[in-house]
Amino acid sequence: MSGFLPLQTTVDARGLTTAVLPVGSFEQHGAFLPLVTDTAIAVTITEAIAGTYNVLHLPPVTISCSHEHAAWPGTVSISAATLYAVITDIAASLARSGVPNLVLVNGHGGNYVLSNVVQESTGMALFPTEADWVKARTAAGIETSMDDDMHAGEFETSILLHAHPELVREDYAQHDELTGPRPHMLTRGLDAYTISGVIGRPSLASAAKGRKAVEHLVADFGQVLEVLKPSS
Q1: Backbone phi, psi, residue 120, to 5°
Q2: Which helix (H) or strand (E) holds 87?
Q3: For residue 232, what pLDDT is reported?
Q4: Where are the domains of the chain?
Q5: Is the pTM of this model over 0.85?
């Protein structure tokens, strides 16, 4: 991999039946993580998967549905309809080139439309699911609950400390913020509940936790390939 781009050749891709597409975002992650955080996480997981299984590693979708973060400078979004169209176009193109299966490795929780496109498609899967994230967090020893660790917190910071420590600013441990319930976030946006854009405790993050989380996700991915196998 070079930066965030895979370097497989057409020879490497020959005979592969499953492609993995990292889907990230370009949105605020507080003052200490970059706007590309979700993309970096999706690519980290996808790269680890491609290093373990025989899959076609696609370059990432780097801008997606980040409308809840629109109040912060730097956030850029596309509509759910556009993301839907991009995914279905990619799947159709893959099918024409002989790759029937597509797994969406989603790094941004606001991409709700990805669940819909998978439900409506054949040979497509979404990974990690919420259950996959929960298991990975447990395996990594993440101390903060998922509800309290929603954005730029312990989990995301740990993965970047493991895979791309150069992307994490040195003062990350000084940016903890917890918000409590967020009942109207979809209507009001995240800025109604957080001053900094952070929801979580990045001070608890570590590279070791990030490594364990990624390793667990890679192991879990094998089940996705089993599900995508054609029935006999």
Answers
A1: -90, 0
A2: helix 80-96
A3: 60
A4: 10-228
A5: yes
Give average pLDDT by consecutive 10-residue segment, the chain, 232 residues: 81 96 98 98 98 98 98 98 98 98 98 98 97 98 97 98 98 96 96 97 98 98 95 68
Tokens read off for 225: 């390939």
Under 8 Å CB-to-CB from 152, ≥6 apart: which residues? Answer: 29, 30, 32, 33, 37, 175, 197, 198, 199, 200, 202
Cβ-contact 99, 10 below 8 angstroms: no
My answer on whether omega of the bond before 128 falls inside 30° of 0, hence cis, is yes
Instruction: Give the pLDDT of residue 4.
Output: 74
Residue 97 vs residues 6, 9, 83, 89: alpha-carbon distances, Å: 18, 14, 21, 13
Q: How many other β-carbons are positioned within 10 Å of the β-carbon of residue 101?
A: 24
CA distances from 167 to 7, 35, 195 (A): 22, 10, 22
Beta strand spans in 140-205 (E) = none
Amino acid at 126: L
Helix (H), strand (E) at residue 38: helix 37-50
What own/partner pairs with CB < 8 Å and gap ≥ 24 does 50-53 have? 50/6, 50/20, 52/218, 52/221, 53/18, 53/221, 53/222, 53/225
Amino acid 2: pLDDT = 54
Question: Which CATH class, in words, describes the domain spanning 10-228?
Answer: alpha beta
| CA 164/CA 160 separation, integer angstroms | 5
d(CA 92, CA 102) in angstroms, rounded, equals 10
The first and second tokens of residue 57, run together, are 């590693």
CA separation for the pair 218, 212 (Å, rounded): 10
